[in-house]
Amino acid sequence: MRLKLFLIPVILIGVLPISKFAHADLMDNFFSIFEPSKEREIGAQQHSQIVAQYGGEYMKEGLNDYILDIGLRLAFVSEMSDLPWRFTILNSPVVNAFALPGGYVYITRGLLTLANNEAEVAGVLAHEIGHVTARHGAARQSRATGIGLLGVIAGVLTGSSAVQQLGQQLGGLYVADYSRDQEYEADQLGVKYLGLAGYPRDAMAGFLERMEAQTKYMVALTGNSGGGSFDFFASHPQTEDRIGRAAATANANADDLDREYGRSRYLGAIDGMLYGDDPKEGIIKGREFLHPELRFKFSAPKEFQLINSARAVYAVDGKGSQMVFDLGMKSNSGQSMADYLSRVWLAKIEVPSVSITEVGDAPAAVTRTVLDRNGQKVFLTAAVIDFGGNRVARFAYQTTNSDSALQTRFTESFSSFRPMDAAEAAAIKPIQVKIEMVSGNSEFSSILANMADVTKDKKALFVLLNPSFENGVPSVGQSYKNLQEGN
User: Fold this and answer.
1) Which residues of the chain are in CATH 3.40.1000.10 domains?
2) How far apart, in whole angstroms, are the C-alpha atoms of residue 239 and residue 274?
3) What pLDDT score does 244 carry?
C-alpha cells in the first residue's frame, strides 16, 4: 500500500502484424497504424509511467544482467534483432509480464519467484518479444482496476463482486487486452524463438502450467470460484487452451533439451531476491499487516487472508466475507471522526447511526448497517480512526453472514490498529527467496517450520513454488526455494 496513489492511463499504439500467423481480417478495424520509427518513441513515452505503476525497477546484483542476457539471446533471433531492446524487472509481487512497442519488455519479480528455471523465464520473454515483433501494441487504454473502499461499497450496492475486482487488482494496473488470435500468434512466435536461441521449445507450455497452478492456489486461498478472476495473465486467453497449443507447436518441432534447462543457474540468480511486498509498501506477517514507513500496524480478522496492493490492503476468509483498509484525509484538522465517516467517506450511503469511540488513544467512529444487494442482505461494518496529521485509517468489512461472532472479529480487527515507534519499524525485515538444498535428514515439517509466516497455508504456497515437493520431499541434493526474513 502506497501513501500516494497514481492511476496513469496508458495508451499503447501499434501497427498491423506482418507474420504468417496474423489474422488481419479480424484486426483491420482495431489497429491504429504507425510507422515502425514511431514505436520506439511510444514505448519510451510510456516506460517511466509503467515503472512507476509497478513500484519502480527492481535491482539485484547479477539478476538484472542475467535477465537481460536471456532476453537479448531471444531478441537477436527474432525478426527485429536490430531494435534497441530493453528488459526491465519490475518491483512488484504481482505475477505478470508484458511489452510495449519498440522493444520494451517487462517482467515482475513476482513472476521470477514463481518460475522454476531459466527455460520458463525464457518462454515468457519469448512470448512478449513475439507481441513486439508482430506489432500487437494496438491502441488501448489500461484498465485502472484498483478499488478503494468506496469502490467496494459501491460494489455491494450494485451487486458486483469485490473479490472479482480484487482479482483484477492483483492482475496488475496494466492489462494489455490482446485478442485471442494475437496471444496464439505470440505463443507460436515464442516457441520459434526458443528453438532458434537453443532453449527447449516446450518451456512456454511449462510456465503456463505454473500459471494454472497459481490460479488454483489463489482460488483455494480466497474462496473465489470465479475461474479467471485470479488468473494473473488476465489479458490472455484461457490458459488451458494456450498450454495445449503451445505444447502442440513444441512437439511439432521436438528437441532433446530438458524442460528444466538452466535450473541451477536460475536459482542462483534469484537467491536473496525480495519476496512479496516491499517493506516500503507494507508487509504481511500471518494475519498482521505492518507498514514501517507509514508507521502503523493492524490485524485482519481471525481466519482471514491478507492481500496487499498499491491501492489498499484486502482480506478475505474464503467464505464470501471481505475486508478493505486504506488511508483517507480529513478536510480540516478539526473535523470529527463521526463527521468524516457519515459526511465524507460514506456520504453516498444512508448511515443509521454512528458510535463515537477510541482505538488506543485515538478518536474513532464506527457504524454498522444492512444493505440490500439484489434481495440479499449484506452486513457492512465501517470504522475510521484518527491517525494524526489529518490522516484517517479506514476499515470496511462486508459479509452476508449475520453471525455476531463474526462482527466481534471485525471489531477486534479495527481495534488492533496502532502506530509504530521508530524502533519497532526498524526491526521489520523484508522476506527473501532463499535457495536451500534437501539433506539426508530433511523432513517436510521442518522445512515448512523454517519458512516465513506469509500465508495461512504455508504448505500450499511452498508446493506452488516447488512443484517437485507435491508428492513429498524429493531426493537428497535437490535445490528448492524457501522464504525467510532477510537482513
Assistant:
1) 279-426
2) 27
3) 58
Instruction: Render pLDDT for 11-27 as a digit per residue (tens, 0 to 9).
Output: 222 222 223 233 333 23
Q: What is the Cα–Cα distance from 227 to 221, expressed in whole angstroms?
A: 13
pLDDT tens sequence across 395-404: 999 999 888 9
Closest Cα to residue 386, out of 417, 355, 347?
417
Secondary structure (3-state) at 255: coil
pLDDT digit string, tens, across residues 413-428:
999 999 999 999 999 8
What residue spans in the chain does CATH classification 3.10.350 cover?
431-485
- Short-list 180, 171, 165, 183, CA closest to 142: 171
pTM of the model: 0.73
Q: Angle CA(127)–CA(213)–CA(124) in degrees, nearest 5? A: 15
Domain 279-426 in CATH 3.40.1000.10? The answer is yes
Residue that the C-alpha cell 528488459 belongs to: 87
CB 257 within 8 A of CB 204: no
CB atoms within 10 A of CB 87: 23
Beta bridge partners of 87: 105
Q: Does domain 431-485 have CATH number 3.10.350?
A: yes
20-29 long-range contacts, CB within 8 A, separation 24+: 21/134, 21/184, 21/185, 21/188, 21/189, 22/134, 22/185, 23/181, 23/185, 26/179, 26/181, 27/138, 27/179, 27/181, 27/182
Question: 274-327 pLDDT, tens per residue?
Answer: 998 888 889 888 899 999 999 999 999 998 988 887 778 999 888 889 999 999
